[in-house]
Amino acid sequence: MSNSSSPASPLFEQALSQHQSGRLQEACAAYRKVLARSPRHAQASLLLATATSQMGELEKAVVLYGKAIVLQADNAAAFEGRGNALTDLGRFSEALADYNKAIELSPYNPDAHCARAVAQHALGRYAEALGGFDQAVAIDQNFAEAWSNRGNTLLALKRPQEALSSFDQAIACRPDYAEAYSNRGVALTALDRTDEALQSIDKAIALQPERAEAWLNRGNALIAANRPSDALLEFQRALARRPDYAPAHFGCGLSLQRRRKMREAQICYQSALRSRPDYPEALNHLAVLRHVDGNHQEAVQLLRRALSLEPDYAEAHANLGSVCLVLGQVDEARRHLARAIELAPDLSSARIDRASLLADSGDHETAVTDLEAVVARDPYHPYALGLALGTQMRLADWSNFESYRSLIESGVQTSARVAPPLVISQVCADPALQKQGAAIWVDDLYPPNQSLGDLKLPPRSTQGRIRVGYFSSDFRAHPVSVLCAELFELHDRRQFEVIGFDFGPRSGDAFRLRVSRAFDQFIDIRGLSDEAAARLAREMGLHIAVDLNGHTLFARTGIFARRAAPVQISYLGYPATSGASYIDYVIADAVVMPASLRPHFSEHVLYLPACFQVNDRQRRASAQRFSRSELGLPDDGFVYCCFNNSSKLTPEQFFVWMQILQRVPQAVLWLIADNSAAALRLQQMAERQGVSSSRLVFARRRAAADYLAQYRQADLFLDCLPYNAGTTASDALWMGVPVLTQAGNTYAGRMAASLLTAAGLAELITDSDQAYVDLAVGLAADRSRLTDIRQHLISSRDALSLFDTPQTVHHLEEGYRLIVQRYESGLPFSDITIRSN
């Protein structure tokens, strides 16, 4: 230097000695004295900046490096040093400019190439970073840090095998390189070589036991090995060494979430976000748990924050699409799900949710394509098999029916999450499988939740009334309300206070208006989380909460998991066991729930004396007198009908129906056309079984009164197995149309038998396919017998137990009273049988 022989030289030598011995404060003071005497002493200026940076005073260091550059603009070390300080401050873009200048001035400096690549990696520019590390190791093949950082970049590029080789090179260069051993474990974890990963990480811990990152990586390896309890201990060890370590808080949350400790997991994710507010993964996982809790709006806000930080975060797009789907924000849901699939074509959760959206909008065929893509990759992706089969059934697409059903049955037997309970009840006639499938669903998605604490029976109101809350998404023109409307109206207000909790889609139909007026209070809980809804029910002092949904569309099972009332009852919406310990009773009768079926229900049973199903006597058919030709039916001939939706129809049942049509050549089968694809497939299958497609006639959907009126042109209603008609069978009997059923082994398979027994028509209950076919054929040939049955239904309708709604309501209320009395007396729940008066 031009001033190296200046009077400041001895002082500079003293400063340099102090710097080299690690006495940074003294060195800085000495450098300043040098600069006070020789303001243009470039080396003193540079080393002052370096020492300041080493003390962690990074902002000051950036300024001092700037002064050094002014003194010597061609000093590569000054640019590299300022780049390092800026990198440590997280100002990577600014750092890149300095590294570029440093490399321009000194092209063969491996440290500068490595440092620039580190900044590029931090900015997500992984391809450029990899090139930079390659340049660094080309210059210095023994550059251990560059090999190790190169491995990290290869991991980010999802190239773990190459990353492993890079870490091995780093360790070959420096056998005691703890960080390389630790990150080598990350690569091995990504390659599903967990035992080797743990050995490598353990080597890192042996070398540097206080390094929190190694304990974190060990926890992540254990998470990958599905050992969440062991992983939790490792994440906690990482936090013991570094309490504000956000990834370790996140790891604790993930471990707890895997162990289904959702509330504790949320606390950990929140801790991660306190340490690092810009943590997309923590925002995403916290949003999922808030969504599960029913806090949908909060989940949306969290996911939008995650996406603002990482716009191409596929999982966050998928989760936001899922939440928007629940909120009915269809366009936004579609946009986020499409983006998730674009970013990650194999992201099964996004395809499943998009399939649900497509199916609800009527595009069943595209929905099937999405679901089949999931199943093809992973037949046991949670519930994908069942969702795929259920969607195909809506299309009458039975191409995978046998194989999918077999996989579902074997999966349920091994406690796999293969199908929603509703699909299992539609395709599996084994009540034990139905119970196990429901229990798997509940344990996975809606386990008991004690967040609101214990619940004691509230006192009766001043009038001594029992408060009953009916919870449903179907307070509208829906089969549940079609059956229940008069129940709500006829409840004895001297003894019962009746409250409706509504969480279904909005509609302005007449049924909704009628039902809302039938309750003492009608409360919209769509905007409340499950926890808030359960708390509201408790605050209102409910004695009984009745779930009218069960495991059906729009269900809010999470409300009952939190115990909305001391007594919780499943009724009508879902004809099978809930599988939930917190549903105390199911309502049944001796026909729909014979003794052989009782062990396959997790609930206690409230047996009504006549029929489990309540009916509405106020329903009216229109005065419209449809001719057969108006309805597309032949003027002559016999009309079998079934107005169940196509998802209840199985290939076995259709084959039985074709046997009937083959034996009754003048007959037609009148069905509901859920969609044109289903109609076309059914016609094609009829042809393949030797029945002209013209003998399948499809009715269009009509307003309720006209729908009832069209029954006048039907001769005999044919029921389905394994999932019987419920409301549709009741509609047929109300209109005087005989119903033929085969009694199955499950609640869903015995509903029509219960209705027929209560209608005094047990003769129309068969016990085999052959008996079912023979009776269907025989009734078509014996018009006088059929006329007698029709006359019985029409003339005796008001006297039939099936349609004695006041009596059914009275029996139901008697059951409610007895259940509450047992609870008040401290007696355990048990089966209750109501006797006829």
Describe this structure in words.
With 837 residues, this protein is α/β, with parallel strands linked by helices. It contains 38 helices and 14 strands. An 8-stranded parallel beta sheet has the order 3-2-1-4-5-6-7-14, covered by helices on one side. It has a 6-stranded parallel beta sheet with strand order 10-9-8-11-12-13, with helices on both faces. 53% of the residues are buried.
Give a short summary of the structure.
With 837 residues, this protein is an alpha/beta fold.
Task: Name some characteristics of this structure.
837 residues; alpha/beta; 6-stranded parallel sheet
Number of strands: 14
Outline type? elongated
Poorly predicted spans? 1-7
Q: Number of helical runs?
A: 38
Strand order of the largest sheet: 3-2-1-4-5-6-7-14
Global Rg: 36 Å
Helix-residue proportion: 55-70%
Mean pLDDT: 92
Q: How much strand content do the residues show?
A: 5-15%
Cα(first) to Cα(last) distance is 114 Å
Q: Output the structural class.
A: alpha/beta
SSE arrangement:
Elements: H1 9-20, H2 24-37, H3 42-54, H4 58-71, H5 76-88, H6 92-105, H7 110-122, H8 126-139, H9 144-156, H10 160-173, H11 178-190, H12 194-207, H13 212-224, H14 228-241, H15 246-258, H16 262-275, H17 280-292, H18 296-309, H19 314-326, H20 330-343, H21 348-360, H22 364-377, H23 384-394, H24 401-413, H25 421-427, H26 431-445, E1 466-472, H27 479-490, E2 496-502, H28 510-518, E3 521-524, H29 530-539, E4 544-547, H30 557-561, E5 567-570, E6 585-588, E7 604-607, E8 638-642, H31 651-663, E9 667-672, H32 676-688, E10 696-699, H33 704-710, E11 716-718, H34 727-734, E12 739-742, H35 751-758, E13 765-766, H36 769-781, H37 783-795, H38 805-824, E14 832-833
Parallel strand pairs: 1-2, 1-4, 2-3, 4-5, 5-6, 6-7, 7-14, 8-9, 8-11, 9-10, 11-12, 12-13
Helix pairs in contact: 1-2, 2-3, 3-4, 3-5, 4-5, 5-6, 5-7, 6-7, 7-8, 7-9, 8-9, 9-10, 9-11, 10-11, 11-12, 11-13, 12-13, 13-14, 13-15, 14-15, 15-16, 16-17, 17-18, 17-19, 18-19, 19-20, 19-21, 20-21, 21-22, 22-23, 23-24, 27-28, 31-36
